[in-house]
Design brief:
The protein is 45% helix and 17% strand. By secondary structure, the protein is of the alpha/beta class.
């Protein structure tokens, strides 16, 4: 309890000292009010304190995560508009969201219920359908299936609930009808429907905006900031549905997410995620119409906005409209899904990513540190490296420090970059111990093997919880066997047999204290052949081990 109170004190202190916002805190309700605009920006939920802090854009700082029902934590993510293939900018958003969901679900053990919409009715879809001459339904189905496959390739877990806009038009219409009934929306002459921003008490809570009307007010809108809930049909080839207010039409962009999320989760939502570019107008408008519909001051408790992906040297985000995209299929020819995920981990979810080969090489090298640590530890545990005397007390302290600091990092706004750094520091220290020290014949070294295994287990489990698949785990080993076996050939057994023969050649080459250079050259040739096929061989005093190279699956073995 003391720790939670101190966390809240630090949050309140930041709020009082903020240069960007002047807030007034109601001690009873936890409502945060802007003293300039008079609008409520954020309400601290009632429920269980988690000792986790999350960045809040409206507050300009971190706020405590409080869960109203820890046994069921709700999460909605804005899904794709399926009019084209997935590019790396899309991928960065969904991988970052997946990382945070895994932290909450797999590390902190919260029962996370997730949902996503699929936008298959939209202006961009209509335009692409016309340009390509393809039926809009057939086109969106194909791109949706492609998106699902791409997420599988990136090891992004699918949502528990998934809804297409075109299949939920009645729910969207009922949402609009309620807003019309409450005088929060109005019908125009062409039978379009607009949300009345002037009827929303706290419009502009996510991003400071001006709702002042321009001199020339659009004829069909009451206020310049009003946005479309329903768009009247304008052309024969547009997808459309009949409505109770008259005329055919289709939903606006913002109402789709609000109605679908509300259908799943009702009048309160713990988390809502999407790219930073969606903060306004999409998320602002979602929040406004849901607060109006459910008659509440706060619909979403925690908005999570991911930083955008930029091509290095460019000032604009990666997007189809700008023509600066890199397709996921092209990217995966050069780098792995684990390497891209590591790049996301190193950037943290809120930070923009400057995509470049240098960024990906850094991610690759970081991932190799984990792979190499697992390979070294595996070889040490199988007595292929000489056992060393290790300080048991120091190892216990290191393990405790690693576990504590890793946990603190993730509780601090999901700081994955710091969490990865904590693991690397401890791995480097232990690797130096088992690789650099000389064996001491007078000491009994094996009593520390349990602590080394504990470190290895924690590192592997931590990376698995962040979504990294291939670090030498048994599951990855089985997958590699399934994907690399040809005509019944077991790759593990084949490489083990080759290394066994190579080991005998090495023994023969140094027998009697005289080196046989020809045999040693043959050993080198065998090593080089394996390297060309993506197998990296490591020689130890009592044998050899191997791992997949950078361009293949990253799994450690021994033989």
């Amino acid at each position: 309890m003391l720790k939670i109170c101190r966390l809240e004190e630090s949050v309140l202190l930041h709020m009082r000292n903020s240069r960007l916002y002047r807030r007034e805190l109601s001690a009873k309700s936890g409502n945060v009010k802007d003293s300039v605009t008079g609008r409520y920006s954020w309400q601290r939920p009632c429920g269980q304190h988690t000792d986790i802090s999350i960045y809040n854009h409206s507050m300009g700082g971190k706020v405590p995560l409080v869960l109203s029902n820890p046994q069921m934590v709700t999460w909605y993510t804005c899904g794709p508009t399926v009019y084209d293939s997935t590019h790396l900018g899309h991928a960065s958003t969904y991988v970052k969201v997946d990382i945070i969901q895994r932290i909450l679900r797999d590390y902190f053990k919260y029962n996370l219920v997730t949902a996503m919409n699929i936008t298959d009715v939209d202006d961009k879809i209509i335009k692409r359908s016309r340009e390509s001459g393809r039926n809009w339904e057939e086109m969106t189905r194909n791109f949706d299936s492609e998106f699902v496959r791409d997420m599988q390739l990136l090891n992004v877990k699918p949502p528990n609930l998934r809804a297409h806009v075109s299949a939920n038009i009645p729910a969207i219409q009922r949402f609009i009808e309620q807003l019309l009934s409450d005088d929060k929306a109005y019908v125009t002459e062409d039978k379009s429907v607009y949300f009345d921003v002037s009827a929303c008490e706290n419009y502009g809570k996510l991003q400071k905006i001006s709702t002042d009307e321009p001199k020339e007010q659009p004829k069909h809108k009451r206020n310049a900031a009003d946005f479309a809930l329903w768009k009247a049909k304008k052309a024969a080839d547009e997808p459309s549905w009949q409505s109770s207010w008259g005329g055919d039409g289709r939903p606006g962009w913002h109402i789709e997410c609000s109605a679908i999320a509300g259908m799943f989760f009702g009048n309160k939502l713990d988390f809502h995620a999407g790219g930073l570019d969606l903060r306004f107008p999409h998320h602002e408008n979602e929040e406004a119409q849901c607060c109006a519909h459910y008659k509440t001051k706060q619909w979403v408790n925690y908005w999570l906005h991911t930083g955008q992906l930029f091509v290095s040297g460019e000032q604009q985000k990666m997007s189809k409209s700008l023509g600066n995209t890199i397709s996921l299929s092209e990217f995966l020819k050069h780098y792995t899904a684990d390497e891209f995920r590591m790049a996301c981990l190193l950037s943290n979810y809120r930070n923009p990513m400057q995509y470049s080969d240098q960024m990906m090489q850094t991610a690759r090298q970081t991932l190799r540190k984990f792979i190499n640590f697992n390979a070294d530890l595996n070889a040490y545990m199988q007595f292929q490296k000489p056992l060393k005397y290790l300080d048991e007390g120091a190892l216990e302290a290191q393990l405790k420090h690693m576990v504590t600091e890793f946990d603190n990092s993730l509780r601090d706004d999901f700081d994955t970059a710091r969490a990865v750094s904590v693991l690397i520091d401890q791995m480097s220290s232990i690797s130096r111990c088992i690789n650099d020290q000389q064996a001491d014949a007078e000491q009994q070294p094996a009593h520390c093997l349990n602590l080394l295994l504990a470190v290895g287990n924690f590192v592997t489990a931590s990376m698995h919880n962040l979504g990294i698949k291939h670090l030498g785990t048994a599951d990855a080993q089985k997958e590699a066997q399934a994907t690399t076996a040809l005509n019944g050939v077991d790759l593990d057994v084949l490489v083990a047999d080759i290394l066994q023969i190579r080991g005998k050649l090495r023994e023969e080459a140094v027998k009697g204290g005289v080196k046989n250079l020809e045999l040693l050259r043959m050993c080198d040739q065998l090593r080089n052949i394996l390297v060309r096929h993506g197998i990296e061989v490591r020689d130890h005093k009592q044998g050899s081990s191997w791992v997949y190279g950078d361009k293949s699956k990253s799994i450690s073995h021994s033989g």
